[in-house]
Write a structure and sequence with these properties.
The chain is mainly alpha-helical. It is elongated, with a radius of gyration of 16 Å. The longest helix is centred in the first third of the chain and has 26 residues. The protein is 75% helix and 0% strand.
Length: 71
């Protein structure tokens, strides 16, 4: 399952959405004008969240044996 294009497309789509959500949440929490916002910090938080999202996708993959057992 990890070798399929569909898996990686879905995982990267989820990671991109997570990146956007985390970055926007960080910017919104800062409550400062857009020009003085700490963009490096906001993007760093978003990037970290995206990495965790991909890792969670990989960790959630069930093996073929588990699928056959109905687990």
């Amino acid at each position: 399952m990890l070798t399929t294009k569909a898996f990686w497309t879905d995982a990267l789509t989820r990671a991109a959405k997570t990146f956007a959500q985390a970055t926007l949440a960080t910017l919104g929490a800062d409550s400062t004008p857009i020009l003085t916002t700490n963009w490096v910090g906001a993007v760093s938080v978003g990037g970290g969240a995206a990495i965790v999202s991909v890792l969670m996708s990989v960790a959630s993959v069930r093996t073929k044996a588990e699928q056959a057992d109905g687990q």
